[in-house]
Design brief:
alpha/beta, two-stranded antiparallel ribbon
Length: about 325
């Protein structure tokens, strides 16, 4: 079953397994590569908010929609370092910085590189998400010591232009290639609940799993419906379909960290527990994800305690 090249028929068959069988298969793969009761904690900070020229239908930071978001310019390095220290104290091992750009200008990127260097000094893994990246920019980030670059494909190639028209799916793949060529680890996943079908979700994961090297980190987001964006009234994703998607992500990319990202604030404890059972082993921690709310750390700590889950304490380099 574990062939290098996943076909739609194979992945679709597993997606449709009876639920207990699917969970068992996902758990079996998970345990081969990870401690099944350990979860990696990441913290995400917005280092530049709003006024993005892209028109991603799910995003409150797009300049195309009026979502009442306060626009902010690029953060000061000292502020970012303070936030990273707090994140580390709360148990995070990875610190992610996000900026609302189509892609960074070189002079802004120099500032981000300084942020990366300072955060690295604290002993944290570093990740940034800055939009489209040119090859020389990927090299600049690598030189600064960046560990991960996040650039989500969001959905299947077929459904992509229903969500974003200001850039193409190919633009996304080019950025991922530039990141890989520079020797930076890839963080790449998508968003569920944007009106796409299960077929789209499966196709998105096949694309990731069939890359020469699958992403080391795969964030799976549940759409946060932001008033003022085109997707504010879209139908909710079925919770079991959500868990099934996580399970096949785990089965198809057994060595990757599968991260439960945005949308946890709206998830019941039981749904999150099923996601952990399906192979999730990373979460975003802290009260805010860029501009969306997230469960407060106390809530997560209590959930971990009830489920007997441990925070990953060290980093694997």
């Amino acid at each position: 079953m574990m062939t290098k090249e996943w076909t739609f028929a194979e992945a679709n068959e597993i997606f449709g397994f009876p639920f207990p069988e699917l969970m068992y298969t996902a758990q079996t793969e998970h345990r081969k590569h990870f401690n099944s009761s350990e979860v990696q904690i990441s913290t995400l900070l917005s280092i530049k908010t709003g006024s993005c020229p892209e028109n991603c239908s799910y995003c409150p930071q797009s300049a195309h929609y009026d979502t009442g978001l306060k626009k902010e310019s690029l953060s000061e390095i000292a502020e970012v370092v303070e936030a990273a220290k707090r994140a580390k104290e709360a148990g995070s091992t990875r610190f992610c910085m996000g900026a609302a750009w189509r892609g960074p200008r070189d002079q802004d990127l120099k500032v981000v590189c300084k942020m990366v260097k300072e955060v690295k000094k604290l002993g944290l893994e570093t990740c940034v998400t800055l939009g489209l990246l040119k090859d020389h920019q990927a090299d600049m980030l690598k030189e600064a010591g960046l560990d991960f670059y996040n650039h989500n494909v969001d959905t299947s190639e077929e459904y992509y232009d229903k969500i974003i028209t200001t850039r193409t799916f190919k633009d996304r793949l080019n950025t991922l290639e530039n990141v890989r060529s520079a020797g930076i680890k890839v963080c790449c996943g998508g968003i569920l609940g944007m009106g796409e079908t299960n077929d789209d979700r499966i196709k998105m994961l096949i694309l990731l799993a069939n890359m020469d090297e699958p992403p080391e980190s795969v964030p799976i987001n549940m759409l946060m419906k932001i008033p003022g964006t085109p997707l504010e009234n879209v139908a909710d994703v079925d919770p079991f379909d959500f868990v099934r998607t996580i399970a096949i992500a785990r089965i198809m990319m057994p060595k990757s960290y599968i991260r439960l990202s945005a949308g946890r604030e709206k998830m019941s404890d039981e749904l999150q527990a099923l996601c952990f059972l399906a192979g999730t082993n990373s979460i975003f921690y802290g009260e805010k994800l860029l501009t969306a709310h997230n469960p407060v750390p106390e809530q997560d700590n209590y959930l971990f305690q009830r489920l007997g889950l441990q925070k990953l304490q060290y980093m694997e380099h």
